[in-house]
Specification:
Elements lengths: L21 H15 L3 E10 L4 E7 L11 E3 L4 H9 L3 E3 L11 H9 L3 E9 L2 E10 L7 H37 L1
Antiparallel strand pairs: 1-2, 1-6, 2-3, 4-5, 5-6
Length: 182
């Protein structure tokens, strides 16, 4: 019996174990996704506030190319996203040219940026909707069933990473409010 140990394998998701901000973890997640799906040009997160019913852009991995910076909208004014929420299911758009004549600002901005395909996942925490995760590509017709299976795995991991980060912020905020009342 050999006692040889092999430490040559590099865990593609080891960034989840590191300290650091959510932005850096999202960038590392994007790099991990691109190893098998190099056509993913952007991962973006929009958060939902259930009290105001507003959806706001939060974070993205696309560097300086940010077509929806500081974008927000009432969920009811974004019917395509509202439909995803109502169905509770992800949506694939393999050819965004279908939205070329759209009057919606977010469709126009994404089109001007050159994104040709999009995969949108609703994010839930214990059944409560808290936002959307977007995977965008400059290439069309790339979201095959195999690609979607891998994106689902990465998407849910990113969602859990986000839940963890947001719950930490909420706990800290609650502690600050409690101490301020003392």
């Amino acid at each position: 019996m050999s006692n040889e140990q092999d430490f040559s394998h590099n865990d593609a998701l080891s960034f989840l174990n590191l300290k650091g901000g959510l932005k850096n973890k999202l960038l590392a997640a994007h790099t991990a996704v691109q190893k098998n799906l190099p056509f993913i040009a952007r991962i973006a997160i929009a958060l939902y506030d259930p009290q105001t019913k507003i959806l706001k852009t939060y974070l993205h991995s696309s560097g300086v190319d940010n077509p929806l910076e500081h974008y927000q909208a009432l969920i009811d004014k974004a019917p395509s996203l509202k439909e995803i929420l109502d169905k509770g299911k992800s949506r694939v758009i393999n050819n965004m040219l279908t939205f070329e004549d759209s009057d919606k600002k977010h469709h126009q901005r994404l089109g001007r940026q050159g994104y040709a395909a999009s995969y949108t996942m609703p994010m839930f925490n214990n059944g409560d909707f808290f936002g959307f995760l977007f995977f965008n590509s400059y290439e069309k017709e790339v979201f095959t069933e195999k690609a979607l299976e891998e994106l689902d795995l990465h998407g849910h991991l990113i969602s859990l990473m986000l839940v963890n980060e947001l719950s930490t912020i909420q706990t800290l905020s609650a502690a600050i409010k409690t101490t301020s009342h003392m």
